[in-house]
Amino acid sequence: MTDRFPVAILGASGYVGAELLRLALGHPRLEIAALGAKRQAGVLPETLFPRLSGLDLPPFVDVDEFDGSGCALVFCCLPHSTTQETAARLVPAVRVVDTSADFRLRDLASYAEWYGTPHLAPELQRDAVYGLTEHARAALGSASRVACPGCYPTSALLPLLPLLSAGLIELEPIVIDSKSGVSGAGRALREDLLFAEVSEGIRAYGLGGHRHTPEIEQELSGVAGSDIKVTFVPHLVPMNRGILTTIYVNPRAGVAATDLQACLEAAYAAEAFVQVLPAGVVPATREVRGSNQAHLGVADGRGGQAVLICALDNLLKGAAGQAMQNANVMLGLPEDIGLMAGTLAP
């Protein structure tokens, strides 16, 4: 039998952690060594999720008492501002894939500004790799700590990075309009996420500056070699999962939407999980639901603008799926192993 890598999932009682557990259970080279959950310590996973009955999973351990001993890799799916201390407790040999924001921002002053608390493990931040897999592959193989991008940034960066790198679009304005399902807000009980508060409506939020804004700007600026500011407006829509991001950009003089389409097609031609749809086909969340796929599209806009569209599942390509994709690369496994499940339809 092929050797398996023992892994732990901390925060396994949340939406992203539970998705990672589902992926890990179907992964032929991973073994679940531990599951961590702060409020559910000592509880069997099947008590919280009856769908896990009969799988003989270990009970949740207290995250604060876990040090990663015996694990090759630890997935951290903990709330923002808590992973830093947890990662600092882990034994040095353990590699970490983090789905929170704790290691995404390289500027620690920016982290403190946007998350309202100083970074508690600056020595760990220095060697963290920003894990947008398709654009970070070269650094992932030797990485000890990977910060998975947020779901909104993933949907914005996948279409924008190749176009900025090729110099095909102006650096400003870049307007990013994103709409996400309710699971993007996490599993904690909140009054504004009750069914009666969310259903039959749509609302914008984070208008004063959403926390994902500096993350998007950091990565775009790095590629452009110049400071980039974006207008980013997220919206909550009454569906469980999925993100649809529409981006408005100005092509450089002499550049047409067909040139942007060709650039994206060339950039992602060999990618298993990013599909550039044919011209005229519009990405839709239903077409990526339950998969690790991101669908990109390009269209002409009025007044010389171009419209970029990205659809993805916020819990998979926007979180757990991308985390597993990164882990596969880190462990020297085929990147698509355990991730080839198709879209859920209807």
**What is the number of helical segments per DSSP (H or I, 4+ residues)?**
11
CATH topology of the largest domain, anyone? Dihydrodipicolinate Reductase, domain 2
Which strands sit side by side, in order, in the main sheet? 8-9-7-10-13-12-11
Mean model confidence by pLDDT: 94
- The total beta strand count reads 13
Biggest sheet descriptor? 7 strands, mixed
Q: How much of the residues is beta strand, in percent?
A: 15-25%
Helix content: 25-40%
Distance between the first and last residues' Cα: 37 Å
Which CATH C-level class of the largest domain is it?
Alpha Beta
The CATH superfamily label of the largest domain reads Dihydrodipicolinate Reductase, domain 2
* Poorly predicted regions: none
Structural class: alpha/beta
Order of helices and strands: EHEHEHEHHEHEHEHEHEEHEEEH
Describe the 3D structure.
A hairpin with a 5-residue loop joins strand 12 (294-300) and strand 13. Helix content is 29%, strand content 18%. It has two domains: 5-126, Rossmann fold (3-Layer(aba) Sandwich); 151-314, Dihydrodipicolinate Reductase, domain 2, CATH 3.30.360. The chain is of the alpha/beta class and 346 residues long. The protein has helices spanning 15-25, 45-48, 83-89, 108-115, 122-125, 133-140, 151-165, 195-198, 213-224, 257-267, 316-330; strands spanning 5-10, 30-36, 73-76, 95-98, 129-130, 145-147, 175-180, 203-204, 231-236, 243-249, 274-276, 294-300, 306-312.
